[in-house]
Amino acid sequence: MTYRVCFVCTGNICRSPMAESVFRAHVERAGLGDLVEVDSAGTGGWHEGDGADERTVAVLEAAGYESDHAARRFQASWFSRLDLVIALDTGHLDALRRLATRPEDAGKVRLLRSHDPAAGDDLDVPDPYYGHLDGFEECLEMVEAASPGLLAAVREHVEGRAA
Questions:
Q1: Alpha carbon of 145 to those of 31, 117, 160, 163: distances in Å?
Q2: Active site residue 15
Q3: Is 73 among the residues known to form the active site?
Q4: What DSSP assignment string belongs to 29-93?
């Protein structure tokens, strides 16, 4: 049975596609590619069908990650097929929990940086869209720092299903 993870930011062209690419690479390196499906979406539909922001693509490629992406808007009906919904900031967390019609769906939503023990109380990944390339690089650093902890949590669920 496939474990499904969806990363969510605002427009699905910066933070969430970056998190999707990085986490997918971690999943593949861990040998879980056949067991874990990774995708992303946005809370809004302004960029539906667009590729990732060129700065996102540049930062991902410079770090050795692949980026093949088309933006889409998160739909409440997706909760039923997803195991984990990862919000990139508290605004997304709140929006996603409002979309959830059942408590168990709201319980699937987590903040990405909650999986980074060094994050402390600052769990938001700042939106780099209106800034410069260094904001995208900082976003990548935060995503990379949280990915091992998230992978450990996902691995625990996947292995629990196999038992």
A1: 20, 9, 24, 29
A2: yes
A3: no
A4: HTT-TTTEEEEEEESS-TTTT----HHHHHHHHHTT--------B--GGGGGT-SEEEESSHHHH
State which H helix or E strand residue 110 sits in: strand 109-111
Catalytic residue of the set 6, 14, 15, 24:
15
Compute CA 15 distance to the chain's CA centroid, rounded to the nearest angstrom: 8
CA distance 43 to 65: 24
- Strands 36-42 and 3-9, bridge-based pairing: parallel
Is pTM beyond 0.70 here? yes
Helix (H) or strand (E) holding 17: helix 15-29
CB atoms within 10 A of CB 66: 12
Tens-digit pLDDT profile for residues 93-125: 999 999 999 999 999 999 999 999 999 999 999
Q: How far is 121 from 111, CA to CA, in rounded Å? A: 12
CA–CA separation, 107 vs 112, rounded Å? 14
Of 50, 72, 97, 127, the active-site residue reads 127
